[in-house]
Amino acid sequence: MPAPAAEPTPVPVLHTAAELRALPRRGRRAVVMTMGALHEGHAALVRAAREKAGPEGQVVVTVFVNPLQFGAGEDLDRYPRTLDADVVVAAGAGADAVFAPPAEQVYPGGEPEVRIGAGPMGERLEGASRPGHFDGMLTVVAKLLHLTAPDLALYGEKDAQQLALITRMVRDLNFPVEIEGVPTVREPDGLALSSRNRYLSDAERTTALALSRALFAGRDAVAAGGAGPREVRRAAEAVLARAGRARPPLELDYLALVDPAHFTEVPAEPGAYEGEAVLAVAARVGTTRLIDNVRLRLGRPGGVR
C-alpha cells in the first residue's frame, strides 16, 4: 500500500499586531492578503509567494474579512468564515504564518475617519457598481502592508481593477514594497475560482460559465485574426446575450475593454489603440455577483498574453 500523504507542517496563527511584530523574520518576506474561504486560487498565490521568497524567505497569509469593502445590502454577514480550513490550505501551499486579526486590531479606533481614496480609477466599473468599495479595499491593504511590512505582496489578476489600484497606490504613496500579479486560476470548464462560487446552484453555475466563455470569445477573436476593439466586444456580447435568455438568466452589470493603467475604455476605432488591454465582465446569476477578465494585446495578430 502507498504511504499516506504527509500532513502539512502546522503554522502559527497570529491574532494581534504584537504577535506579528514578534514573529522572527528571515530572508525576504512575501505576503498574500485574503478574506478567507481559501480555495485553489489562493493556494496558487501562496505557492507563487513561496517561490518568490525562496527557501530562506518567509510567507505570511492574512485572513481578514474587511467590513469597509462591503456596501449596503452586500454579503458581509454571510461571507464564509472558515479559519481552521484556511490555515490547512495556507500551510499546504507553503505559508510560514497566518495573520488573522479581529476587526479591533486592524481598526483599533473603530471605523477609520482617515481613509485611502481610490481616485478616478476607483469610480469606474467595479467602483461605479459598488460605491466606496475601493476606498475600503485600499485602506485595509495599506493597513496590512504597514502591519506585515513585506518586501513583496502578491494579488490575483482575477481582481484586475483591484490589482491596478494597489499598484498605483504603492507607486503614488511610495510604499517600500513590490507588487506582483498572479494569473487567474480556473476550473476545468473555465469558471474562475471565487469564494462566491459556493453560493451558486448547479443551474446557476451552468449559466455563470458564460462569463469566461464570453471573455474567451473576445480573446480568440484577437488570436485568430488580430480583431480590433469593436470585434472583441461584439464576440463577447454575443455569448452574454445568449446567457441573458438562459434559465436562470445572467444579468449583465458591465462588459468593458479597458486600458489596464487607468481602466478607461479602449476606443473602438481601428488603429486608435495598441498595447495591452483588459476585457472585463461583471454579472449576477441568481443572488450571486461574479467578475472575471482576460488580458489581450491589441494592434497585432495573435496578440494574446
TrEMBL record:
Binding, beta-alanine: Q69
- Biological processes annotated in GO: pantothenate biosynthetic process
Keyword Cell inner membrane listed? no
The residues the record assigns to binding ATP are: 35-42, 156-159, 185, 193-196
What pathway does this protein act in? Cofactor biosynthesis; (R)-pantothenate biosynthesis; (R)-pantothenate from (R)-pantoate and beta-alanine: step 1/1
Which CDD domains does this one have?
A: PanC (cd00560)
Any one cellular-component term (Gene Ontology): cytosol
Do you know which InterPro entries this protein is assigned to?
Pantoate_ligase, Pantoate_ligase_C, Rossmann-like_a/b/a_fold
Catalysis performed (reactions): (R)-pantoate + beta-alanine + ATP = (R)-pantothenate + AMP + diphosphate + H(+)
The family annotation for this protein states:
Belongs to the pantothenate synthetase family.
Q: Know the name of this protein? A: Pantothenate synthetase
UniProt organism field: Streptomyces pini
Gene symbol here is panC
